[in-house]
Amino acid sequence: MARIAIDMDNVMADITTHYLTYYEAAHGIKLDSETLQGVPEGEALPEGMVRQFLNTPGFFRTAPVMPGSQEVIKALCEKYEVFIVSAAMEFPLSLQEKLEWLNEHYPFISWKNIVFCGSKTIVEADYMIDDHDKNLRYFKGERLLFTAPHNINLTDYKRVNNWEEVAEELLATAPAVL
Q: By C-alpha distance, which of 116, 87, 76 is closest to 99?
């Protein structure tokens, strides 16, 4: 059975919208997501704000679910061996919160298929869906870049803009289950 590694932040969880919501709550200023287009993720908000949010208790636990991800990932689980792979070690608070978030929103994913790591260079799969070049660059399988504001200018990978496109790419051509 073919294996898929799926990132969490800005792939399953809408972290960009979450940044904007946190920023508005903290500063009373509503930013449009268009202002983030092409800006590196850590530089999208005033200095230090992204890192501050990522270290705020509850940030990862309350992230909104990316539209369509639950249904498509559930369908992928029927045709592929699916692993959720998140480089979560940099933000220790995220470990428990991400696990709780996955259990709430994706209860069909077994704990055995969740990988929290520091570097995704160790990941071996047939496909990887991720929003960061640093994670896709060294991956040996088929790389799918999930569109996020910070990666809008990347052209080195096959791009998927939403979960409907992931379904078109991977469910229409899924290998037969043995």
A: 116
Matching residue, tokens 């037969």 = 176
- Residue 63 class from Cβ within 10 Å (0-12 exposed, 13-18 middle, 19+ buried)? buried
Average pLDDT over all residues of the chain: 93
Catalytic residues, by residue number, are 7, 9
Backbone angles phi, psi at 144, to 5 degrees: -115, 120
Look up the pTM and report it. 0.94
pLDDT per position as a tens digit, 14-32: 999 999 999 999 989 898 8
What is the residue extent of each domain of the chain? 3-14+64-170, 15-54
Question: What architecture is the 3-14+64-170 domain classified under in CATH?
Answer: 3-Layer(aba) Sandwich (3.40)
